[in-house]
Amino acid sequence: MSDQTKTNAELIEEISLLNQRIRELELSDSERKRMEQTLRESETWHRILFEVINDAVFVHELDGEGLPGRFLQVNDVACRRLGYTREELLSLSPRDITMPEEYERIADKRNGLASQGNILTETIHVTKDGRKIPVESNIRKFKYFDRRVALSISRDISDRKRAEEALQESENRYRELSIIDDLTQLYNSRYFYNQLKREIDRVTRYEEQPLTLLLLDLDDFKQFNDAYGHVEGDHVLSRLGQVVKRCLRQTDSAYRYGGEEFTILLPMTTGKDAAVTAERIRREFKKENFSPLSGQDLHVTMSIGLGQYKAQEEMKVFVHRVDQLMYQAKLNGKDRVCSDS
Question: Which end of the chain is less congested by CB atoms within 10 angstroms, N or C?
């Protein structure tokens, strides 16, 4: 391997060994001059690599337990990135330029430096003016004369982190779009069955926690569409989504089941308490005016079936039971809530 391709750490180790040999050996003048020339060349290559590298380079002491002490050397990139002068940085230690929680988070890795000799980790550096910079650091320990030191090469990974965050945001948005009904902004039927299964599993594990399902259907909605058109019909469905959201708790969830049918899951809610929520939704929606003509009132009503989950009941049986209660509400005159309790 040529000097040009040696790493910073290897060059520093070589300088240390050469200095020791110069002090310890009795050499002829010619041999001593040759070694001193080699040393000067090594130091020159070290300075070149140390200063032209695009990453921040830090050399710091290691105490008796292998923990980092103050900086012994830093390059220009480190100074520019962190906003310190070289003299200021040389009075600090890795702890002073790292977010406290990050410094503690990587404590196990840092402690492992004593046994491993080399670690690669991600952390967050803090600049002099308080800005936070995510970095990936490659840290290697070695002996420098009579000192134990570590060389850390830290790469700014801000761009990579921004790209990762953008990708995660896109994935979250894609997932959200795949489970949300565009018109009502409620969840869709596919997601309904996923969540219903999760809630039934929860009830099975914690037997004392109730679960209630509402299934609602708009009354005479086909006649409304025939009379006023699908644009006005879509407006009704959109407003229904808003009313339902307004009436629910954060732990509840609503779904467009299909067409003008909707389901609502009320976890940790008895049938009796759910009836209060169902009536609130029915009354609030009935107040909405859907007349396309100014000065006229036109209201749309709904029929709601309500059922509390029974132990060991199959999911499809549960949904069918509540669906039948909704049809019973229609048979009883519509614009009402029907339950089996």
Answer: N
